[in-house]
Write a structure and sequence with these properties.
This protein is α/β, with parallel strands linked by helices. The chain has five helices and five strands. Helix 2 packs parallel to helix 5.
Length: about 150
């Protein structure tokens, strides 16, 4: 199975989209929904369509049920679904993202190929990181990079 460990901030939104939507954030029925931009959502859909990868949320948006549900509803707008999210343990607290992903992979042997889609370089330390930028989000170039990395072993 192919998987995308998905961050939200800096991937499905950007500084630009947040500024553009700032006027509606307090009137939106779901606080936070304004932060996920359709342009990036449909680029993610292109990745999924061309690779068959499953989406695993590793963003801080996974910590609260309300935020996870918001991600699920937003993905559904593009006919996408959340396969899973990295668990959060109050005992362990916030672990580095890479450690959380490594722990998840050790329990999920069905994943044989993955990428990490994140704007932080500390999220993963090898070529499986597709690093976006908080200023620009998921660009066309990064979309193609993700597709190429996920399909390179087909």
């Amino acid at each position: 199975m192919k998987a995308i460990f998905l961050d939200i901030d800096g991937v499905l939104n950007s500084y630009t989209t947040v500024l553009q939507n700032d006027k509606i954030k307090y009137s939106h029925p779901y606080v936070g929904a304004w932060m996920i931009a359709d342009v990036y959502l449909y680029r993610l859909k292109k990745i999924i369509s061309l690779t068959g990868a499953k989406i695993i949320l590793h963003s801080t948006w996974r910590y609260f049920k309300r935020d996870r549900e918001l991600v699920r509803r937003t993905l559904a707008r593009a006919n996408l679904s959340l396969y899973d999210y990295l668990p959060f343990s109050e005992k362990k607290g916030m672990m580095p993202k890479q450690k959380d992903i490594e722990d998840y992979l050790s329990d999920h042997s069905e994943i044989n190929h993955f990428i990490v889609l994140d704007d932080e370089s500390s999220a993963w330390n090898d070529e499986r990181l597709v690093q976006t930028n908080l200023m620009t989000g998921l660009t066309k170039e990064k979309t193609n990079e993700a597709i190429n990395k996920l399909n390179q072993f087909d």
